């Protein structure tokens, strides 16, 4: 079951359930649902959605609406160096920080960092940014866990943890600047509810970057390559911290383009996670 936020022609934000073939959605407004939050906080979100979909709800073609990022007031956090590919790429990018990446990959405590406020997140179709003061910029396609206020995993979405590798590689203390700036986080297109971790580990993560209509990079990995389990990452995020609105946690990247590659303005990034859908964003220079 897939849950989305969308903007109507009247510029109102509604919540809907996406039809199985992804061509349409069922607007939950007549059922009294105007926010994701109560559904994500439900004891059994999947059962609640099954009960809602059995009602008569207006069907709207997806082509008639604009999808919004599937976050309301949640903080967005990210895990790092959770795939072997991420560890080796980062160790090559920086002599200065190589030991830190090596150690955190093996350590019990994962790397977790704040990524974005909900209101700053780009939806599918909206631009993601590259910094004007950075020379080496990449997307990071990541599975994102949707967590309720109790830290329970209630769904999954696709995340793009946009990163400036030259800033990050210069000094690890510059990580927040490499990772957090306008349009540096995209989430979408919707939330997949009701999949187990075992099922999600079978999903493929794929990325394509188009430039002037040509493919300039393509990569693929599998969620199964993620070194840590979902509960472990979520558990560390909720240690000594409360999230009354819930949280979204990106689980790290397993795809890193070759060192010669950097994003350019007007590139288009297409990320697919089988089991969820597609997140597409054009790139803009900030
Ligand atoms: O430590 C740097 C960030 C790592 C990261 O974002 C990732 O592995 O996805
Ligand atoms: Mg990342």
The number of helical segments is: 8
Mean pLDDT: 97
Strand content: 35-45%
Task: Output the structural class.
Answer: alpha+beta
Task: Please state the CA-atom Rg, rounded to the nearest Å.
Answer: 18 Å
Description:
- The chain has helices at 37-41, 45-53, 84-93, 98-106, 165-170, 175-179, 197-200, 230-237; strands spanning 2-7, 13-18, 24-27, 59-61, 66-68, 75-80, 111-116, 128-130, 137-138, 141-147, 153-161, 163-164, 185-192, 204-211, 214-222, 247-250, 268-273, 277-285.
- With 286 residues, the chain is an alpha+beta fold.
- The strands form three sheets. Strands 1, 2, 3, 4, 5, 6, 7, 10, 11, 13 and 16 form an eleven-stranded mixed β-sheet that branches.
- Helix 3 packs antiparallel against helix 4 (98-106).
- The radius of gyration is 18 Å and the shape is globular.
- Bound molecules: 2,5-dioxopentanoic acid and magnesium ion.
- Residues 78, 80, 140, 142, 161, 252-253 line the site of magnesium ion.
Gist of the model:
With 286 residues, this protein is α+β, with helices and mostly antiparallel strands. The chain has helices at residues 37-41, 45-53, 84-93, 98-106, 165-170, 175-179, 197-200, 230-237, and strands spanning 2-7, 13-18, 24-27, 59-61, 66-68, 75-80, 111-116, 128-130, 137-138, 141-147, 153-161, 163-164, 185-192, 204-211, 214-222, 247-250, 268-273, 277-285.
